[in-house]
């Protein structure tokens, strides 16, 4: 959050998540000529979700580059540009398409700094619009962030607010390592306070969105927002939920989660990715393995995506990922009856 | 090498014990056989003797914290042994570390479910989770259950809390706060558990004691002749009860989950008082003893109790209990079942009372016997049949022949 000083100088204004990302891109490009954008339809069309917007007109086609439909090519070019000193920011139009870029991201970008003994680094940023809820069906709706959180050498961010979207993108561009930012498509139109100046939100620090004493609800991206809304409803039912917005899943801020669970004795992890082998499993295991185990008064509960491709049918699509009602029900069950 | 002092196994099924009191402090000289600490099990308090003579060093165990059997709790250094011997460095795991299945982490076999937090709080308070009722799914014990248990009277005050001097009373009218002794804590916990889980019902019978008195008189002469202790009414009642219980297996039984455990042997506990505490030594295989044998065994238990030489095995594990308060002038009373037994017999005083006999009012020595039964396993008629036979046997002892 902005400091008091920043608050004083920055005008209070609301931006959408998409506008906040665009503002960060523009400010980074103004400040550093090595920064350039790269992706399918990011130029004249302004990006599939309108994120890059008018940037091509402000910075020209040399710095906002429309690419052919080849994610492997985009990623490979970005890795090469980064090694040679540029600061590429690429957009994978739908995060699902990142499967095509796996070789460059996992085998190259993540490894190069280590395999060359630190003589080369890969300061690139990959923006990946992801998640379900737009009726885009199974190949355009996935949440694949956990795959990359499994890879040493990559950083994986999931900002949930316009404020964090801007601040974390600027921090990612500064970072000498490859950073993947998963942006939930449903968040692009959400609004929030965004300071006008360029600021950074540190990578690897979770945010406590709401303090509580009965249960800790951990989520990132849109699930942090749903958890906040659920906590509001839980409060009217006498349940005090603490909501932790992870913001970054690699590195993960385990300390904040552990301290919270030590206090509340109950943990609910909410994530949109498929529940099996997901982020929730990792967080649950970290708590179970830690000294916080002795402070648990109920089983750890995961709410994750269904073990199924995201359906096209809008009713089923909603049912396939945790919703606010599910969070309220799971938290209530856990606090009142101690049930998983 | 210094001699290790370990937490001994003083009872068959004991897995942990709690040191209630240290009788020695760091550096004290002890002789082999001196009492060095008192250990509490879930049944009784035992004194533990020094295994060697020398100086006590490296006292590792705190009082009031459950410790696994076999854990070294101190060392005895014989003359000439330097305090820096390596053995002393062998460090004891933190007193909290060896979690006993009984206290903090019951084995899967015990079927006890509790959350890690509940176990932690129980451990910190020296509380046996078996005494706590779980309200969570499948009976799981949670933090709230443990806290509720700790708050309810009579509560189990952990030893570490009991150790400091009684807290200064807020006002003189509040009186003195006496922390529970180890035995009081056990009694409180077990009897609360009994009242909570066993639905008690009570049958009272007023029984004429003329024949029993006469029998005791004659037996006294015989015992004197053969050198057996003088028979007491309590022993006679125990003898009669043991004989009758053979024909009433359901009274010599325990509720075990959703089953009745019929005990093969009849082990009769006799409630006694020692220094204000309730203890229940057991007449093992009571049905096999005649009156002289039972009188001898009873005398041995009573002496052993006074001298505190009885083992926990001798102080627990009965299958039926008799509590006689007649000598205090109590007319009749209801007793709380000694868990996990199924019944307890409360005996009041014998008093000459007017009764009708053959159309006449005559004075006869009468005594009230009240049987408390666990209705989960004993029905009213079964208990009544037992009482009817008890009456018949006490009023006409020849039926036992």
TrEMBL record, chain A:
Its EC number is 1.2.4.-. It is an enzyme of class 1 (oxidoreductase). Pfam families: Transket_pyr (PF02779), Transketolase_C (PF02780). Keywords: Oxidoreductase, Thiamine pyrophosphate. Its cofactor is thiamine diphosphate. Residues 15-190 form the Transketolase-like pyrimidine-binding domain. The keyword Heme does not apply. GO terms for molecular function: oxidoreductase activity. NCBIfam families: PRK09212.1. This is Alpha-ketoacid dehydrogenase subunit beta. It comes from Bosea minatitlanensis. The lineage of its organism: Bacteria, Pseudomonadati, Pseudomonadota, Alphaproteobacteria, Hyphomicrobiales.
UniProtKB/TrEMBL annotation, chain B:
SUPFAM superfamilies: CoA-dependent acyltransferases, Peripheral subunit-binding domain of 2-oxo acid dehydrogenase complex, Single hybrid motif. Keywords: Acyltransferase, Lipoyl, Transferase. The keyword Protein transport does not apply. Residues 113-150 form the Peripheral subunit-binding (PSBD) domain. Its cofactor is (R)-lipoate. Pfam families: 2-oxoacid_dh, Biotin_lipoyl, E3_binding. The keyword Acyltransferase applies. Its EC number is 2.3.1.-. Residues 2-80 form the Lipoyl-binding domain. InterPro entries: 2-oxoA_DH_lipoyl-BS (IPR003016), 2-oxoacid_DH_actylTfrase (IPR001078), Biotin_lipoyl (IPR000089), CAT-like_dom_sf (IPR023213), E2/Pdx1 (IPR045257), E3-bd_dom_sf (IPR036625), PSBD (IPR004167), Single_hybrid_motif (IPR011053). One of its GO terms (molecular function) is acyltransferase activity. It is an enzyme of class 2 (transferase). Belongs to the 2-oxoacid dehydrogenase family. This is Dihydrolipoamide acetyltransferase component of pyruvate dehydrogenase complex.
């Amino acid at each position: 959050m902005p400091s008091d000083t920043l608050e004083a100088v920055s005008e209070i204004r609301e931006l959408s998540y998409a506008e906040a990302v665009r503002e960060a891109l523009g400010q980074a490009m103004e400040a550093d000529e090595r920064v350039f954008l790269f992706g399918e339809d990011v130029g004249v069309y302004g990006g599939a979700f309108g994120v890059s917007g008018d940037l091509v007109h402000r910075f020209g086609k040399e710095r906002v580059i429309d690419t052919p439909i080849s994610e492997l090519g985009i990623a490979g070019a970005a890795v090469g540009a980064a090694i040679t000193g540029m600061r590429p920011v690429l957009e994978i139009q739908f995060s699902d398409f990142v499967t095509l870029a796996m070789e460059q991201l996992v085998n190259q970008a993540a490894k190069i700094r280590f395999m060359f003994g630190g003589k080369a680094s890969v300061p690139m940023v990959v923006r990946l619009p992801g998640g379900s809820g737009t009726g885009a069906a199974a190949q355009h709706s996935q949440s694949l962030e956990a795959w990359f959180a499994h890879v040493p050498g990559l950083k994986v961010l999931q900002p949930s607010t316009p404020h964090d979207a801007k601040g974390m993108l600027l921090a990612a561009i500064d970072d000498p390592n490859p950073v993947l930012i998963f942006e939930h498509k449903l968040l692009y139109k959400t609004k929030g306070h965004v300071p006008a100046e360029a600021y950074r939100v540190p990578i690897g620090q979770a945010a406590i969105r709401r303090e509580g004493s009965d249960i800790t609800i951990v989520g990132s991206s849109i699930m942090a927002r749903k958890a906040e809304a659920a906590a509001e409803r839980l409060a009217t039912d006498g349940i005090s939920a603490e909501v932790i917005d992870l913001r970054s899943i690699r590195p993960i801020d385990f300390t904040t989660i552990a301290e919270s669970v030590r206090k509340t004795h109950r943990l609910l992890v909410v994530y949109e990715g498929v529940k099996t082998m997901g982020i929730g499993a990792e967080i649950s295991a970290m708590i179970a393995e830690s000294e916080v185990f002795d402070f648990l008064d109920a089983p750890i509960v995961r709410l994750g995506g269904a073990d199924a491709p995201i359906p096209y049918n809008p009713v089923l699509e909603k049912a396939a990922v945790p919703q606010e009602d599910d969070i309220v029900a799971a938290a209530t069950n856990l606090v009142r009856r101690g049930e998983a | 090498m210094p001699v290790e002092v370990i937490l001994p196994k003083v009872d068959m099924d004991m897995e942990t014990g709690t040191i209630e009191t240290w009788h020695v402090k760091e550096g004290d000289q002890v002789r082999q056989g001196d009492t060095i600490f008192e250990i509490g099990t879930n049944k009784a308090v035992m004194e533990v003797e020094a295994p060697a003579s020398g100086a006590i060093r490296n006292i590792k165990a705190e009082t009031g914290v459950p410790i696994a059997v076999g854990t070294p709790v101190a060392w005895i250094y014989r003359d000439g042994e330097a305090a820096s011997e390596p053995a002393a460095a062998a460090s004891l795991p933190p007193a909290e570390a060896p979690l006993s299945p009984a206290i903090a982490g019951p084995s899967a076999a015990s079927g006890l479910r509790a959350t890690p937090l509940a176990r932690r709080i129980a451990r910190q308070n020296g509380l046996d989770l078996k005494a706590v009722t779980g309200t969570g799914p499948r009976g799981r014990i949670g933090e709230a259950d443990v806290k509720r248990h700790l708050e309810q009277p009579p509560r189990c005050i952990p030893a570490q809390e009991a150790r400091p001097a009684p807290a200064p009373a807020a006002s003189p009218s509040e009186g003195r706060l006496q922390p529970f002794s180890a035995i009081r804590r056990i009694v409180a916990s077990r009897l609360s558990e009994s009242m909570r889980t066993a639905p008690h019902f009570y049958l009272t019978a007023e029984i004429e004691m003329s024949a029993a008195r006469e029998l005791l008189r004659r037996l006294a002469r015989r015992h004197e002749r053969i050198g057996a202790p003088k028979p007491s009414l309590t022993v006679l009642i125990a003898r009669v009860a043991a004989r009758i219980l053979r024909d009433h297996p359901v009274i010599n039984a325990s509720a075990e989950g959703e089953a009745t455990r019929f005990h093969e042997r009849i082990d009769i506990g006799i409630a006694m008082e020692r220094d204000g505490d309730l203890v229940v030594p057991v007449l093992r295989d009571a049905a096999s003893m005649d009156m002289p044998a039972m009188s001898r065994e009873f005398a041995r238990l009573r002496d052993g109790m006074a001298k505190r030489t009885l083992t926990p095995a001798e102080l627990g594990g009965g299958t039926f209990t008799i509590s006689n308060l007649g000598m205090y002038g109590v007319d009749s009373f209801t007793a709380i079942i000694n868990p996990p037994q199924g019944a307890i017999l409360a005996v009041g005083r014998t008093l000459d009372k007017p009764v009708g006999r053959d159309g006449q009012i005559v004075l006869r020595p009468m005594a009230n016997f009240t049987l408390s039964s666990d209705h989960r396993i004993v029905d009213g008629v079964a208990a009544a049949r037992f009482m009817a036979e008890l009456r018949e046997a006490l009023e006409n002892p020849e039926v036992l022949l």
